Predict the 3D structure of the following.
Amino acid sequence: MSESVPNSTASFAHRNRAASTGSFAFYDESHDAEIDAWMDEEGAILDDLDEEADGHLGFAAYVVLCVLTGGLLYLVFRWVPKWRIRLVGARTLLRECEWVAVEDQWGGMEELGVGRQAYGRSLSSVFGPEDEKGLQRRWRRRLRRRRSSYMESEPDDYATDIEDDDDYDDDNDPVVRQLRTLDYRYMRFCYHPLRDKFVPGNTWKDRAWTDASALRTGLDSDERESRTRLFGPNLIDIEQKSIAAILVDEVLHPFYIFQIFSLILWAADDYYYYAAAILAISLFGIGAALQETRANQRKMHELSRFECATRVLRSGFWRQVPSAELVPGDVFEVSDPGLSQMPCDCLLLSGDAIVNESMLTGESLPVSKMPVTDDALAQLSLGTPSVHPAVGKHMLFCGTRLVRVRRPPPHDSAGHPAHASHADAEDEPAALAMVARTGFNTTKGALVRSMLFSKPVGFELHRDAFRYVGVMAVVAAIGFLASVANFVRLGVEWHVIVVRALDLITIVVPPALPATLTVGTTFAQERLKKKSIFCIAPQRVAVGGKLDVVCFDKTGTLTEDGLDVLGVRVVEKPNKSGGDTVPDGDGSRSSESDTRFSPLIASPETLVPTNKLAATQSTDADIDYSPHRALLYAMATCHTLRHIDGALVGDPLDERMFAFTGWSYEEGTGGEDAGGGPVDEDVLGGSGSLPQQPRLSPSVARPPPPPEDDANGDTSSSYESSDADSAHAVLRKRTKPLELGVLKAFEFVSQLRRSSVVVRRFGEKGGEVYVKGAPEVMEEICRKESFPADYEDLLSHYTHRGFRVIACATKSIPKLNWVKVQKMKREEAETNLTFVGFIIFENKLKGRTTEIIGELGRANIRRVMCTGDNILTAISVARECGMIDKTAYCFIPHFVHGDAHTALSQISWHSVDNPMVQLDEKTLKPLPPPADVDVSLPYDMSNFKNYSLAVTGDVFRWIVDYAKEDSALMHAMLVRGQVFARMSPDEKHELVEKLQGIEYCCAFCGDGANDCGALKSADVGISLSDAEASVAAPFTSRIFDISCVPEVIREGRASLVTSFTCFKYMSLYSAIQFTSVSFLYATASNLGDFQFLYIDLLVILPIALAMGWTAAYPILSTKPPTASLMSRIVLIPLLGQIAICVLIQAVAYKTVQSQPWFKAPQLDKDKSNSKNSENTALFLVSCYQYILSAIVLNIGPPYRQPMRTNMPLMIAILLTFLVSTYMLFAPARWLFELMELTFMSPGFKSFLFALGVGGFAVSYLAERHIFPSLAGLMGTAKRILRSDHRRERKRYETIEESMRT
């Protein structure tokens, strides 16, 4: 959802604001107390609005003022819309307004017309079912009171939007006679008559969406027409401005208005050539901007718009309609062969699907979708920013690509599954889906809105640049007054005085300044593209240069995607009875002391010998193989792998786990859940082989075929027999192969951190439940006596060493049929389980992870890990890659009392390696260790204060929910937290926002869908993705390691410094030219037309553009570049350089006047005389200042490469220097006349050359040595004179300092 639009829990309410006539404010509906207070406030406001003046008078005044000022005030009102709104608008009741003014949280203002259309349907059809009895009663009283008071003054004009308000009671659903809407940034808001505010339409949900089986009937024509009026067409259709509209927007920008003013001024002063050249450049710039804007619009239009033909069920009949006509509630066919991409957000009703959501998430893994259930419908909330995981697995999102869609099996008249031979191909059922959200209300639409209306990126540099321009404008005003006085004294004509004086303003404020500030960003973006890092938000490039902290996802970002299975550790107990005993569901087992973990088992053959793979009895008197088989069966069935193009594809962890087993997997075609489908009671339970119809089969896992020698008579293979078995028994067992059918699957949910399957073995009446998930959650769902005594020790052993550990559990269900399976709830399946063992995954770091983490550390950029993995595993990986100092303490939390949902919970923090070393619970500062504890070993005592925190998701949730925003606990967690483990996607997003809240400039680097929210909210989001550009993040890297992070930082710093350098250069250029012109104005002289052309077009423009060519320095500095002009280290050198330039020109100006060949300017009251010795001397010496200042101001290491590496800049400086020297010493006659030069002696020419070069030497030495020292001395003096003065610091720096004390 766009950051400029309220989220699902907010809507817009009318507010009385001083700066607007009817702006909107955020209103949180979740707090009942605030509702009452808000309504009381609104009632008071609205009761007073009937005395407001009519807006027609204000509009008339607006028109008159615009005409009288020749359109100047029109431009001012266009640039500052608040002033126009204040003048022309008249506040009125929101229910009666004709237009509204909307102000977003960043100060942007828009005027929107309110649409009106006849509706005549119930209130709930617009806003859905709501519990509003108290709200309705209160508003009914207020409406009646206002009606009676309003009727007394305007009895003929009063009308209500709700019919029969007097007869309204709490059980009625009132009829909305007139629907009032406004469309704000492609989002429709509908006026709620009872709440007296516009409510976003994306929160709508049909009250009938409770029974999944009843959703397949579709809509009738009347309902479709009503919803079309309510929601509009199902299109993400970005408005494309016409060329004329773009041209007007471009030309009326303040920059081009100033250019037009300058062109008129230059033409009036007879600078025709210069004005023509600037006009040509401006037209080229406007044309380039026009083309770029059109190209961006077309690109966004092509990216967002999609329309196709769909088969829709309307009024009981199937018909082909364009997808643009779909409305919420429509039922359409997903299995239509012509449908390759989803045109809307919809709920899958029947069949099953596999989709690719990479366009939305940046993650190209296939995602399985299953038919929606009643429980999922109960949790459906269409207004929330993120979809609940229980709903997401049933929802097909707009913009996702359909990889595979399977139809549901046919049913007979009784509703039972029909065999394929009995089903008519023409009556074959279709995979159906119901439209839930359309157009810009979809997930894709929200992401497109976030791209169009993203959070504005403000820089201190840009703000300070315009402040500096304002200061220079004051200087220009002073020069203007001084010039006017001087020209009046000389008797110059008034039209010349005005033109000359105004010309100073165009010199002091260089028109090319805005363009030069973006040069660095453009070049940096191109360099990033060559390194396979793509950016869809150029304004974010420079933000990368200001980063303070970078948050990393772990798996797939810091570590390899594909985890290698190191092996398994199985729960074993001696088989004292001499045979295998399957654990009973009642919990009867041997004592806990007999249960132990097996040694590490590194192969499936060692895990379960082939002759015991399918056994129910064993001749081995030493080991009970039941847990071994359960663990192997769990690895073979509890996953989300799907067959796509002949290969099993899915989560990388599942792929490696299944590959370890060596089994084969045949995906079912039934449809319900994980391919279980509507299988009747005899499937997998009767005699004979599996049904041949694929529609009736669940997903089946099979072990590898037996070796050939076993097939030729060796009975000790995968179909085992005991010594007592007869040959007949062996033959019977061989006719019943081992096949595990997955009847139902509960997919992984990030909140539960586990997944499970219900499995039945071919030929058995009962079944098993297999669960795999995080070891921490097993204690909640497994029987305590099933855990070995060393459970925690073994888990800690592996997680401390960086391995990823997955726990498995099982339980048996004696009798199982299809109906029982489908009615089984997750809570029923995942309870009273028996723990069977661990799967150990080797989590290898990517090749460059340690190198990059070290590089960021040396640059004093904080690194934070944010992962969903186990906290000890995350700490181990953090230590291995250098994110946490191996010699410093790391503290982890645990709940002493309560949990994440209890406000009065108590949390204890202790060292991960030494539990005796703890932190204070409130301040998170180290407590004095007990006297008998040696805290120095194995750690360095000097690092005791440089401790770090590792925070779990539940502790993070508790601190965010129950700790105060500015509490020491919250601050300490955010400043000292280096590892955040077991974090959900929403918690990752929230962590980024909390870090930004204490003034961190934060980046997030991740690789998939779980990171989407954090990537969008971070100042710099970098997605590791195959896509060249994805809407998941501003930056997308096709190099799948974190080497992209320092690249973005380097280029960001280079971009920031380039903009800074260009600004200083342009400022010094305007100061040099202002000085030259001011000296010449003393005698009513000026620079010539071609002199201006040479300076601006042949010297300044090439050098300013070439400055951005300098590449980033390869080594990250420990200190980021400054982004503020309002600092001593910037202003003192800049002012010093201006003083040196003024001094050099003053020497040339005075010296030339004393020469015997001096040619004084001839006073012409009607025009300027530029052909004189003062002009020639100042022009030539200033050329050296323009050129050589580029060398003085150029900033190289530690942010950019040395200037010698920038060949375009070196060539531009060299050529302009040579041309200027040529003009000084031996210009050709035509050049001499063209540039309006005068005679000078050879000796004086050498003097000017020495003056220009000598001035450069002085400026260079002062810039590198004198001015920085002077700035430092001034800072020291300020601290001495003002003892209470303290350097302005960011909040997190203050918190860090307090933590150290």
User: Anything to note?
Assistant: The chain has a mean pLDDT of 79. The chain is about 40% helix and 15% strand. The longest strand covers residues 175-184.
